[in-house]
Specification:
With 289 residues, this protein is an alpha/beta fold. It has one domain (12-285): Alpha-Beta Barrel (TIM Barrel), CATH 3.20.20.220. Helix content is 46%, strand content 14%. It has helices at 3-6, 24-38, 56-70, 85-97, 127-138, 159-171, 185-197, 214-220, 226-234, 239-259, 274-285; strands at residues 13-18, 44-47, 74-79, 102-106, 143-148, 176-179, 204-205, 207-208, 264-268. A nine-stranded parallel sheet has the order 7-6-5-4-3-2-1-9-8. It starts with a helix and ends with a helix.
Amino acid sequence: MLIRDRLSDGKPSISFEFFPPKTDEAALRLEQTIMELGALDPAFVSVTYGAGGSTREKTLEVVSRIRQQSGIEAMAHLTCVGATREEIGLVVDRLAAAGVTNILALRGDPPRGETCFTAVEGGFSYANELVAFVRERLGGGYSLGGAAYPEKHVECASPALDMENLKRKVDAGVDFLITQLFFDNRFYWAFCERARAAGIAVPIVPGIMPITNAARIERFGATLPAQLAVELEKRREDPQAVQQLGIAHATAQCMDLLRGGAPGIHFITMNRSTATKDVFAELRVAGLA
């Protein structure tokens, strides 16, 4: 199944993001999470690609296993970091050989310990270059996604320049966009309005992560609505209360997004199922999933 087709069928697309495990214990937890969330019949799942391509082999392994063992459509993340165009081409060919027909093409974050992105000699500097390369190599029978930033990319000087960069990426061959996580839906709606005004017509899927850990959320740098920030601070030392607040806020976000016409929700799960399952259950009761 091509994700672009799923996003055009008029039904809300509920999907989940996982990351490749680094330890045996984490691998077991991921298997359990995939089993539990897979039972919810997601439209697709995605598997991230570690900084500097550090999980390249694991990404391919997890994506292939999900597709083969669970029958769930799995999308592989692919980045420019630390690889030449020839090396990226080999990865793309391996994904295609494994039957993976959906790829999320990203520039990627700098490797651990580095503060800015630097392309390797013979590599790509921007996501639009990667998108164009993959599209030319694979043709139209594959679905390519890209990242979008409702609060603009952290390295970009202005929202206007960020939108210009996004337009180049879409014009290079992106079929749909998945946003960086956000906690205030006003950023998403305003972003979509600007994107449509810029001539970007592809589906824009909001990325949502239920808050389960106060310190972790602060590291992401996304803006918290004032009242949510106050309530989170009150509960900081009570993990269960933090999670309850996070689930309630994510549920309200998702309901507003889906009722407002968002094409779906892409849940960032952090390889854990509980919070996402709770939000999904509320969406199902409301007839939105």
